[in-house]
Amino acid sequence: MKTSVKMLALSALMCSSANELKAYDPPTMGWSSWNTFALNISESIIKNQANAMASKGFVKAGYVYLNIDDGYFGGRDEETGQLLIHKTRFPNGLKPVVDYIHNKGMKAGIYSDGGPTTCGYYHGGDKTGNGVGLYQHDQQDCDFFFKELGFDFIKVDFCGGDPIHNDRNLDLNEQERYTAIAKAISNTGRDDVRMNVCRWAYPGTWVHDIACSWRTTGDINCSWNSVKNIIAENLYLSAYCYGGHYNDMDMLEVGRSLTTEEDKTHFGMWCLLSSPLLIGCDVANLSTTASNLLKNRELIAVNQDSLGLQAYVVAQENETYTLVKDFGQLNGLTRVCGVYNPTDEKKVVTLRFADLCLGGDVLVRDLFKRRDLGTYQDTLEVTVPKHGLCLYQVTGQERYERTLYEAETAYLQGYTEIDWNRPTYESNAACSGGMMASWLGKNAKYDIQWRHVYSEEGGDYYLTTKYMSGESRSMTLEVNGKKISTISASNKGWGVVQSNKRKITLQPGDNLIRLYNTSAYMPNIDCIEVKKVIPTAIENITAENAENQDTYSLSGVRIRSARPARGIYVKGGKKVVRN
């Protein structure tokens, strides 16, 4: 009988150690009012959506937050500054609505702004949104929202703090404002409130300690170009998704007017990249096809996986992208991968399992169709429709250590999409992945870090650093906090890749490799390659027996295997025969 992918995944989970199963809070799942109803919300609309979420199985599927966005405001009391609720849209106030949501087995979410005015006021002409933002009312409003009304989530916009989005020309500091709001929430005594920072761009690494999620792009709209552009902006942000804190790609447009294929890609990529899943359509009038997609429990499991990882790009071919992430177990035999085609024509792509660090027989499960496709070796030819995504759970017999770490998967302490001349990622055709890290150096925090360079047993490795420079520059190499050497780059041009190879020692488990220059600009970084120093005895092993090595193989260092191989292999520098 053929073993299913699901059974192997379950076996891997049962055999994993406690430190491999760190459980993090998953991305927020629920519904939000803005995409369909904008400012035209009301008590009856919110209750109707709560009814539909419960009766149609969305709450059971995990969509437990029901969020009221902009449009509920009614100004402020002139004497006390107390926030008022729109008398026509919510004649009974918000408390009965919150209670209704809670009684449906859901959590309730609310909206505000980091400045004095909301986006609906400035861009939507809603005059009741003037002066209702959190600015100068942080504690008063947080006490009202979370102690008096009982909300469980808040989305905080920034139109009132950004001069191009408000008529007061206020230019507030994002970090200061959102930090103050987080403190006000904490002061309420509630430790279960989720805050979403909505600054429409990645605001900076400080946000990880402030919010459970943060918007990385401008607002989504119901068009393929919008979805495609948001995916493009998030392909290289995997380093900033960790510890139960997530890059937010905005609310879902599934079930509105995209094609069926575009809906699948939209939802599948939001799952693969671990974005919050907030339904934005009218759930009460949702098609069966869209409903089934949104409730696909195998796709939801990819998004809600307790590892809390965002997939990263491992290959580009014919204008498509292959992404992968661990699933269920760190460095385990089971992973999730996607082959994404943003173009306007069908593409045929070769999925190479070596790119996924998997070997041997690889069982492939289609997560959209929810069925096993079979067992493959080395490669799988994939046909991806235009605007399409093929999403698979893949389980190999063998798992190998990762050897290639692109700069675009590295963590830049100084990265932000708000300020200029800061460390960032840029396209460069000369680079192995078509991307590079640039504007590094001149500050201790303007460095580049690969924070999870994994070694199963530790030991000696060759580290090859690849970089480009149009002038003479240098950088310091550090491994696990220990300075190793200074790497000097010659003036060979910004499109010419140079390399530096040296031996380093890694510890078992995760390692941190860092490049920095505290006083001058660094070269632009393409990638690093990390390969085990192979004992001399392995040179005596023939290529035909190399696949049977217990510790080393042609694909890299084996981490774990589903079953032992027979034949000659190498362990501890000695040849051993296993019958």
Can you tell me about this structure?
This protein is of the alpha+beta class and 579 residues long. The protein folds into four domains: 5-14 and 311-400, Golgi alpha-mannosidase II (Immunoglobulin-like, Sandwich), CATH 2.60.40.1180; 29-304, Aldolase class I (TIM Barrel, Alpha-Beta Barrel), CATH 3.20.20.70; 404-532, Jelly Rolls (Sandwich), CATH 2.60.120; 536-578, no CATH class. The chain has 13 helices and 32 strands. Strands 9-8-7-6-5-2-1-10 form an eight-stranded parallel sheet. Strands 11, 12, 13, 15, 16, 18, 29 and 30 form an eight-stranded antiparallel sheet that branches. Helix 7 (138-148) crosses helix 8 (174-187) and helix 9 packs parallel to helix 10 (260-272). The chain is globular and about 80 Å long. 49% of the residues are buried. The model is unreliable at 1-21, 538-555 and 564-579 (pLDDT under 50).
Which descriptors apply to this entry?
single chain, 579 residues, alpha+beta, Immunoglobulin-like, TIM Barrel, Jelly Rolls, eight-stranded parallel beta sheet, 13 helices, 32 strands, 34% strand, disordered N terminus, disordered C terminus
Structure, briefly:
With 579 residues, the protein is of the alpha+beta class.
Write the layout of secondary structure elements.
Elements lengths: L4 H11 L13 E4 L1 H4 L5 H13 L2 H4 L3 E3 L5 E4 L6 E3 L9 H9 L3 E7 L5 H6 L13 H11 L4 E5 L16 H14 L6 E4 L15 E3 L8 H11 L11 E3 L11 H13 L4 E3 L8 H7 L2 H8 L7 E6 L2 E7 L7 E8 L5 E6 L5 E9 L4 E7 L1 E6 L3 E13 L3 E3 L17 E4 L7 E4 L9 E8 L3 E11 L3 E7 L2 E8 L3 E14 L2 E8 L7 E9 L10 H4 L5 E2 L2 E6 L5 E5 L2 E5 L1
Parallel strand pairs: 1-2, 1-10, 2-5, 5-6, 6-7, 7-8, 8-9
Antiparallel strand pairs: 3-4, 11-12, 12-13, 13-18, 14-17, 15-16, 15-18, 18-30, 19-28, 20-21, 22-27, 23-26, 23-28, 24-25, 24-27, 29-30, 31-32
Helix pairs in contact: 7-8, 9-10, 10-11, 10-12
